[in-house]
Specification:
The protein has helices spanning about 190-205, 240-250, 290-299, and strands spanning about 10, 25-30, 35-40, 45-50, 60-65, 70-75, 80-85, 85-95, 95-105, 105-115, 125-130, 135-140, 145, 180-185, 215-220, 225-235, 260, 265, 265-275, 280-285. The chain is mainly β. The chain has 2 domains: about 10-160, no CATH class; about 170-299, no CATH class. The strands form 3 sheets. A 13-stranded antiparallel sheet has the order 1-2-3-4-5-6-7-8-9-10-11-12-13, with no helix packed on it. Strands 16-15-19-20 form a 4-stranded antiparallel sheet, covered by helices on one side. A 3-stranded antiparallel sheet has the order 14-17-18, covered by helices on one side. Strand 12 and strand 13 form a beta hairpin. The two termini are about 35 Å apart.
């Protein structure tokens, strides 16, 4: 039910027996206008997709051909068409950053720049180069990379109702009074995507290590969603440099901060890396919120 109208459909689609999105999907704004429509196959975009702004004006059209995404038409927030029939300029917001560049025949070309959405006047955070629609190389704070592009051509959050797939039942019992609404820190695109961001950030560093051991780093997610006050709390390794890891982690995309009764609050965070020759794994958790102290501070 939305806007008091129990008959209003805001999303519909089909899942196969494996729980994957399969077939036509569509999603609607609360005013009833179409948000986006297209097909999935085995949880992946396929065929032609169209998206619209809330006022019904067109926003984006793309096609999937041979597992590659081709941008066909695009309009900016001022409803100005920036890309026509596969040629023009295009920008996409991904993980709190904006990637922008030129499109030729539906694929990226030349230099693409990544800038912070919150601080657009700052120098680019990363640069990537494409030739004939194929990734050539990139450079960010970790250095030059040639393995693969670091940005998604399509923002996976364009269909927000699909985030319901990421909902999970808490393993921790709720002992909070019903008068207090507690929401833990959360990444816009879900914890799986946040794990992918960590992998991309630390992979090139940890992948070069040949020793074994573990390291635990603890800190907080502050009221703005940034990881801060990170410290090495436990180490068994001769190779892991906690200072390098802390620098990388503090540069991760912003999270949605924890809230108590709608007010942003700090929340504890820990992450442990387990490294073996040629392999590594990690696990992280957002710590339980000390409700009483937060409620007192918010009064």
């Amino acid at each position: 039910m939305a806007d008091g109208n129990p008959s209003l459909v805001i999303g519909e689609g089909n899942y196969n027996d494996a729980g994957q999105k399969d077939g036509e999907f569509s999603e609607y704004y609360l005013n009833g206008n179409l948000l986006g429509k297209g097909d999935f196959k085995d949880d992946k975009y396929t065929g032609k997709w169209v998206f619209y702004f809330e006022d019904g004006q067109p926003q984006l059209t793309f096609e999937v051909r041979d597992s590659s995404i081709y941008i066909i038409d695009a309009w900016n927030d001022k409803r100005k068409k920036t890309l026509d029939n596969g040629n023009g300029t295009y920008e996409v917001d991904v993980f709190g950053y904006k990637w922008s560049g030129k499109i030729i025949k539906g694929r990226p070309d030349g230099a693409w720049l990544c800038t912070s959405i919150q601080n657009e006047d700052e120098a680019p955070i990363a640069t990537e180069h494409f030739v004939n629609g194929q990734f050539a190389n990139g450079k960010n704070f970790s250095g030059i990379y040639v393995d693969s592009s670091r940005f998604a051509f399509i923002n996976n959050n364009m269909l927000p109702m699909l985030n319901a797939e990421k909902l999970k039942i808490s393993a921790i019992g709720c002992t909070i009074p019903v008068t207090s609404k507690i929401i833990s820190a959360l990444y816009d695109y879900g914890n799986d995507d946040f794990s992918d961001q960590i992998k991309q950030a630390v992979g090139s560093y940890i992948g070069r290590l040949h020793g074994h051991g573990y390291i635990t780093i603890a800190g907080e997610v502050n009221e703005k969603g940034a990881l801060v006050d990170l410290k090495n709390t436990a180490t068994y390794s001769a190779d892991l440099n906690s200072k390098d890891l802390i620098v990388v982690l503090e540069r991760l995309p912003l999270l949605n901060p924890a809230t108590v009764n709608g007010k942003p609050v700090k929340q504890g965070f820990t992450i442990t890396f387990d490294v073996n020759p040629g392999l590594y794994s990690f696990s992280y958790r957002f710590l339980p919120i000390t409700v009483a102290s937060h409620i007192a501070s918010l009064k």
